[in-house]
Specification:
The structure holds three protein chains of three kinds. Helix content of chain B is 85%, strand content 0%. Chain B is mainly alpha-helical. Chain B has one domain: Arp2/3 complex 21 kDa subunit ARPC3 (Orthogonal Bundle). Chain C has four domains: 2-226, P-loop containing nucleotide triphosphate hydrolases (Rossmann fold, 3-Layer(aba) Sandwich), CATH 3.40.50.300; 237-273 and 525-556, no CATH class; 288-371 and 448-522, Rossmann fold, CATH 3.40.50; 384-445, no CATH class. Classes of the chains: A mainly alpha, B mainly alpha, C alpha/beta.
Chain lengths: 291, 226, 556
């Protein structure tokens, strides 16, 4: 994947560049573009199609958010019908759709972000400013599969030794509590042993540094500069009010000299990820065909 | 000198960011403010943690407690709202103090989201669980004495957590803070709020005694978090 | 040049009557390889910890420890931290970070090295140790052997001059242990690292050492060349002698003189001094096969619907009253087989029968009462209470015994296993061998007809192994069937009736212990490897000695 060669700081900035305008603006152009960009990227990079369950709950969420707004918000000029004495307007339905698109597109981009920036990349970023916290998080991440494994071993052994008795709920709860309690003891013992190993390797000496295998190269600097430039431009257009959109009483979109520029820039941003991956694929296939 | 620069920077930067957001985002201002508050409230504690001397043992004990609460969240993921994270955070705060409680609470949110997925909700979870830990630490003495008080605190913490997360829900789905929307979100989340409160009480009752005892023992034996 | 000096070191733990170390004196020359051995509790672990300032235990200390002439009390933290490396037994409890590369960077970060220097150290160590292919993996995904190698690499990033290794392979299977020793050997030969290693597994490292320290009861009883350990043997008790490599023990039994053979190869040379007209040990007739205790046919099993098959058309037959040992590589599925036998997991095809009854037919709970009981690999998993007695009482509760009867059962078991003083203690405070016995006690209180043991000799010294063998023989004599999963061929040779090799999801080879070992080239005892080709079927050192003596020396 192309994004693996990009420095995590650039990836993080990219993610913010895409989601901040989407989250903080009312303009549906942002949401539609963000959604499209995310879907395109996922089509290009996810090895398997999304699970039915995921699609289902996302659809449910979408519908729920769409419905909620018209039910509570009765502003808007175009009245479609009446429910419980309140008007359900076209504008409020559109607003609901916008909300749903916003929620969904941010969710999708979060999924993409979680995959692009793994825990070690995030920790490498964090380690520059909060090294001890990063160390603490890394230790916790290391402990989770270890303690789960331990818990399973203990549970299986105790099941076999008859601790869980007849399988009734009270027996199982009591058994589970005992196993958990012993797990805590074991974990605290483990903590003592690991801390000795840390001290033996010099932990506690003054002047601890933090290492990251991710090198910020020239291309990363260029990417960063470009991103910041585009962000400044988009935010500038947003600040000038030329990207404003209002739903009530009528759907109106502001149009100014820079509106188109703002939209184009944002679309550029949002589709960059998909475009980069697509280009990467084509290049790869091309090189392979030459072998 | 460095400290003075940092303070000035913060005093200038924070209002600038807030005001900048107000101008930039107009009606999305509440969302901006909320995210900012969530992030900025965690920052001083994390920086204090970085600054102070932490022994390797204290670090590992915190890591263990965070891991246990994350595993708890994973194990009970099937039942929405039923998780031992708050209970474990409170128990840690009772034995080791408010700062430790804040760390375990907020970092449990951060670490568990490596499994459940990070998103704009992360700072809010970190904030909510962190503050619960901090408060539990401040109220250590009375909470340790009375089991009933502890349960009440747990229930209230569950409700407070739910209310905080509902703020995020409404900010996100509505785009801004609308009181009616907030009330609707609270109503919709009501069953889950109840489960939060109940699960906190259940886990506190089950774990406060045995786990608390072990934490006290290791605190005394190794002289941690004094 | 002497790198490390210990002079008249005497140390007592607080609240302890007896000193753990008494007047210990020795020195490590730079680039030397020294082995410390001795029975459990002799003080070798304490000695190693005292030589690593950061983890030295609290207590009453007399005498001097010096590194490069500087006394430990004055030794700078930075020097002590980076130039003296320490590795403990348990691979898991030394890993701090989530990914391999983070772990490798951990120690240099502690020392405050700059990014570029850390980058080069990490890259070097990863390459030297062959870690490159798992560089980006999560640490928890590594095997035990890989974890311990990672720990070693992590310590080596600091380029220490001295390596203190405290039973580093006790928790590893023989192959991983071999890899680890090979790496230690490389570090010693190629980098000139001074090594001080405490070990029970002497077979592989004795040939590498230039000095052996033998400690008993906190005192050094032998400090000299590895070859000289032979004559020393004669004055030593059987318990300690049992821990030495097969060749050395054979040397002792035969009353040979001169430098002792240290490796299997040298042992093979030694037995050539004897004739081999008589090649076989007289074998007593096989016990008449009784009814099957365990009958597995065409069993298939996997974890999860999309996992790989762990058991593939597996078959196994174990008869009542016999002791069966199962061998096989790490992760081959032997533990899974055990879990399938006791019903914790269920096969999706094929059948598993216990004493003629299908495992499926046993309802939850019924199985434990008097049919099967398993001692897991980690005896700690057996305990859920704060004292051993409470755990034993839980076992009695499962069996439905209480009150007077319970007290009698517990006292009887404690006597049988020799665990009287352990009952009031917290199980985690016990030593490895004590924990094993306490866990075994709880398991035996369930009165099983079939006893399952998963790697019972892991990390135990020779004396405990002998004790365990005795206990198992008694249990077997009382009618219990025993199935042991183990890597320890010597152990099996001494007490098993039949053995099998587990491979590719099934039992590949199965038969009387003697036949299986004599036919195998690797999964067999060291004694067997010594005698292979020269004699026919001896599988223990005493059997070879018997044959040698019967044959007499070669008259040239």
């Amino acid at each position: 994947m192309a994004y693996e060669r990009i420095h995590p700081a650039v990836l993080a900035l990219y993610f913010l560049s895409v989601t901040v305008p989407a989250m903080f603006s009312l303009n549906p152009v942002f949401h539609i573009a963000a959604f499209a960009g995310a879907v395109l990227f996922m089509i290009l990079t996810e090895p398997e199609p999304p699970k039915a369950r995921t699609v289902l709950w996302m659809s449910v969420l979408f519908i729920a958010v769409v419905i909620i707004n018209p039910l509570f918000n009765h502003r808007g000029q175009t009245e479609l019908f009446f429910l419980n004495g309140h008007a359900i307007t076209l504008e409020s339905i559109f607003y609901g759709v916008r909300n749903a698109l916003c929620v969904l597109s941010v969710l999708l981009w979060c999924r993409i972000f979680n995959r692009m920036v793994s825990s070690e990349k995030l920790l490498a970023l964090l380690g520059k400013h909060l090294p001890k916290t990063a160390l603490l998080i890394s230790s916790s991440l290391r402990l989770i599969p270890l303690l789960r494994h331990r818990a399973e071993e203990m549970r299986d052994t105790q099941k076999e030794l008859g601790l869980y008795g007849t399988g009734e709920v009270t027996d199982r709860l009591a058994g589970g509590a005992k196993v958990f309690s012993m797990l805590v003891t074991w974990s605290l013992d483990h903590a003592t042993a690991v801390s000795a190993s840390m001290k033996a390797r010099g932990y506690g000496l003054k002047g601890r540094t933090t290492y990251s295998i991710y090198r910020f190269g020239r291309r990363d600097a260029i990417r960063m500069a470009l991103l910041l430039g585009i962000d400044a431009a988009i935010l500038g257009v947003m600040a000038s009010g030329q990207m404003a959109f209002s739903f009530y009483p009528v759907l109106t979109m502001e149009r100014g000299a820079f509106t188109t520029a703002g939209i184009v820039l944002y679309c550029l941003l949002v589709f960059t990820a998909a475009f980069t991956e697509g280009k990467n694929r084509i290049q790869w296939n091309y090189y392979r065909s030459k072998i | 000198m460095k400290k003075a620069v940092t303070i000035i920077l913060l005093c200038v930067l924070i209002p600038a960011v807030v005001i900048g957001g107000a101008i930039l985002f107009r009606d999305r201002f509440y969302t901006w403010l909320a995210v900012l508050v969530a992030i900025l409230s965690c920052v001083p504690f994390l920086y204090a943690f970085e600054r102070r001397d932490t022994t390797s043992k204290e670090l590992m004990v915190l890591a263990v407690m965070i891991a246990l609460s994350v595993i708890g969240r994973i194990v009970f993921a099937g039942i929405p709202g039923f998780k031992p994270v708050t209970a474990i955070t409170i128990i840690v705060a009772l034995s080791f103090g408010g700062e430790a409680g804040f760390l375990v609470g907020s970092l449990s949110a951060a670490v568990s989201n490596f499994y459940f997925g990070h998103g704009p909700w992360t700072p809010f979870q970190m904030f909510a669980w962190g503050i619960i830990g901090l408060l539990a630490g401040l109220l250590r003495k009375p909470l340790q004495k009375s089991r009933i008080l502890l349960c009440v605190f747990g229930a209230l913490a569950g409700i407070a957590y739910s209310l905080t997360m509902d703020v995020w829900t409404v900010l996100w789905s509505e785009g801004t803070f609308v009181l009616k929307g907030y009330l609707a979100a609270i109503a919709a989340a009501f069953p889950q709020t109840v489960v939060y409160a109940v699960s906190n009480v259940v886990f506190l009752l089950l774990l406060a005694g045995p786990v608390g005892k072990k934490l006290e023992r290791i605190k005394k034996k190794e002289g941690l978090f004094q | 040049m002497e790198l490390l000096q210990v002079e008249n070191l005497t140390f007592s733990y607080p609240d302890s009557g007896k000193p753990a170390l008494r007047d210990v004196s020795f020195a490590l020359a730079e680039g030397s390889f020294t082995i410390v051995c001795g029975p459990s509790g002799c003080g070798k672990s304490t000695l190693l910890k005292l030589l690593k300032k950061e983890i030295a235990p609290y207590g009453e200390l007399h005498g001097a420890r010096r590194y490069q002439g500087v006394s430990y009390e004055e030794l700078e933290a930075r020097v002590s931290g980076s130039q003296i490396g320490y590795l403990a037994q348990d691979p898991d409890s030394q890993i701090v970070m989530d990914t391999v590369w983070q772990e490798l960077a951990f120690a240099p970060e502690n020392l405050g090295m700059k990014t570029e220097e850390i980058r080069s150290r990490v890259a070097e160590m990863a390459a030297y140790f062959g870690i490159e292919s798992w560089f980006h993996k999560k640490t928890e995904q590594l095997s035990g052997g890989q974890k311990q190698l990672l720990n070693l690499a992590s310590v080596m990033t600091l380029e220490p001059r001295v390596l203190l290794l405290d039973e580093p392979t006790a928790q590893l299977d023989p192959i991983a242990a071999g890899d680890f020793f090979a790496m230690i050997g490389r570090l010693h030969r190629e980098l000139g690292v001074t090594v001080l290693i405490a070990e029970h597994r002497l077979e592989e490292i004795l040939p590498m050492a230039d000095r052996v320290l033998f400690i008993e009861d906190g005192e050094i009883r032998y400090n000299g060349e590895p070859g000289g350990i032979g004559p020393f043997l004669r004055s030593v008790s059987e318990g300690m002698a049992a821990g030495l490599p097969a060749s050395v023990r054979l040397y002792g039994l035969l009353g040979e003189t001169g430098p002792a053979p240290l490796s299997v190869a040298e042992g093979r040379q030694m037995i050539k001094r004897y004739a081999n007209a008589i090649r076989d040990i007289a074998v007593t007739a096989d016990r008449a096969a009784g009814k099957p205790a365990v009958e597995i046919r065409e069993a298939w099993f996997r974890y999860g619907r999309n996992g790989q098959d762990v058991l593939r058309d597996a078959a196994l037959m174990i008869y009542e009253g016999e002791h069966y040992c199962l061998f096989g590589g790490n992760g081959s599925g032997k533990t899974t087989l055990l879990s399938v036998i006791c019903g914790v997991h269920k096969v999706y095809a094929g059948s598993v029968k216990l004493f003629g009854k299908p495992v499926k037919a046993f309802r939850d709970g019924e199985r434990n009462r008097g049919v099967t009981a398993m001692l897991p690999q980690d005896p700690k998993a057996v305990f859920v209470c704060d004292t051993v007695r409470e755990d034993w009482e839980l076992a009695c509760k499962t069996m439905g015994i209480s009150g007077q009867e319970r007290e009698k059962a517990i006292t009887a078991m404690a006597e049988r296993l020799g665990t009287g003083e352990l009952l009031a203690r917290h199980p985690y405070d016990l030593s490895g061998g004590e924990q094993q016995k306490a866990a075994l006690g709880k398991v035996l209180l369930l009165n099983p007809k079939l006893l399952l043991l998963d790697e019972p000799t892991k990390g135990l010294d020779a004396a405990y192994k002998a004790e365990l063998r005795g206990i198992l023989k008694d249990i077997q004599a009382a009618g219990t069937t025993i199935l042991t999963v183990t890597h320890d061929a010597e152990f099996a040779a001494e007490c098993a009736d039949r053995a099998g090799l587990f491979f590719d999801g099934a039992v590949a080879v199965s038969g009387p212990v003697r036949d299986v070992f004599s036919a195998n080239a690797f999964y067999t005892t060291a004694a067997c490897r010594i005698a292979r080709g020269y004699y026919g079927n001896p599988i223990t050192v005493s059997e070879i000695a018997e044959l040698c003596q019967k044959n007499g020396k070669v008259t040239s």
